[in-house]
């Protein structure tokens, strides 16, 4: 009989626990959040094959949202170009606005180096918020192109310029050595032919 009462008590206790568990709403942590934060991947690319002093350099920024939430207030800033560069197109700091999940955005910046030598092209910074209700500002960095060589303009011009002026000067300088002997020969020929005609006429 004691055994039967014990089994009955265990069954009632289990039933009450099951009832409490079914009446209690599951917590958000137990469900697992489906709203993963927005995550941005940023690439920074130099599109020029050669980076040359006093010539435009095109930099392309690509921003990808690999998260499940829209990234808001996306700010892209590249402070790596100091006084040795002139910004001639685009902006080094730009607001990209909103970036939905699986979306991407691109931005182009054109700078002009005023000095030659080795230069370390470092990463750009991106800041954003995850969703419309979040006040937390998240921060990330782009890929780094790394160290590159800025060639002097004279060196680049010497190797790759078509040298049209040089060829024109060469052509002008080549004319007298060719034309003067031809004129002398033509003059001598005319005189010789004149002498022959005069002899035949006699």
From TrEMBL:
Chief location bin: endoplasmic reticulum
Keywords, ordered alphabetically: Endoplasmic reticulum, Glycoprotein, Membrane, Signal, Transmembrane, Transmembrane helix
Coiled coil spans: none
Record field: transmembrane: 164-185
Domain of life: Eukaryota
Leader peptide range in chain numbering: 1-22
InterPro entries: TRAP_beta (IPR008856)
Any one cellular-component term (Gene Ontology): endoplasmic reticulum membrane
Protein's membrane topology: Single-pass type I membrane protein
Localization per Swiss-Prot or TrEMBL: Endoplasmic reticulum membrane
Quaternary structure, from the entry: Heterotetramer of TRAP-alpha, TRAP-beta, TRAP-delta and TRAP-gamma.
Family: Belongs to the TRAP-beta family.
Function: TRAP proteins are part of a complex whose function is to bind calcium to the ER membrane and thereby regulate the retention of ER resident proteins.
Database matches in PANTHER family: TRANSLOCON-ASSOCIATED PROTEIN SUBUNIT BETA (PTHR12861:SF3), TRANSLOCON-ASSOCIATED PROTEIN, BETA SUBUNIT PRECURSOR TRAP-BETA SIGNAL SEQUENCE RECEPTOR BETA SUBUNIT (PTHR12861)
Protein name: Translocon-associated protein subunit beta
Organism: Isotomurus palustris
Top-level taxonomy: Eukaryota, Metazoa, Ecdysozoa, Arthropoda, Hexapoda
């Amino acid at each position: 009989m004691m055994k039967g009462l014990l089994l009955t008590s265990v069954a009632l206790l289990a039933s009450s626990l099951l009832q409490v568990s079914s009446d209690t709403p599951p917590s958000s942590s137990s469900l697992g959040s489906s709203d993963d934060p927005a995550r941005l991947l940023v690439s920074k690319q130099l599109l020029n094959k050669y980076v040359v002093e006093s010539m435009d350099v095109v930099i392309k920024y690509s921003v990808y949202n690999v998260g499940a939430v829209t990234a808001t207030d996306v700010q892209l800033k590249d402070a790596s170009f100091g006084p040795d560069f002139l910004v001639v197109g685009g902006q080094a700091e730009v607001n990209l606005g909103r970036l939905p999940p699986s979306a991407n955005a691109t931005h182009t910046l054109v700078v002009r180096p005023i000095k030659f030598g080795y230069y370390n092209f470092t990463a750009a910074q991106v800041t954003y918020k995850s969703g419309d209700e979040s006040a937390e500002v998240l921060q990330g960095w782009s890929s780094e192109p790394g160290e590159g060589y800025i060639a002097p303009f004279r060196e680049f011009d010497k190797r790759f310029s078509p040298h049209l002026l040089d060829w024109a000067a060469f052509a002008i300088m080549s004319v007298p050595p060719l034309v003067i002997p031809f004129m002398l020969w033509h003059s001598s020929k005319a005189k010789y032919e004149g002498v022959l005609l005069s002899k035949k006429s006699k």
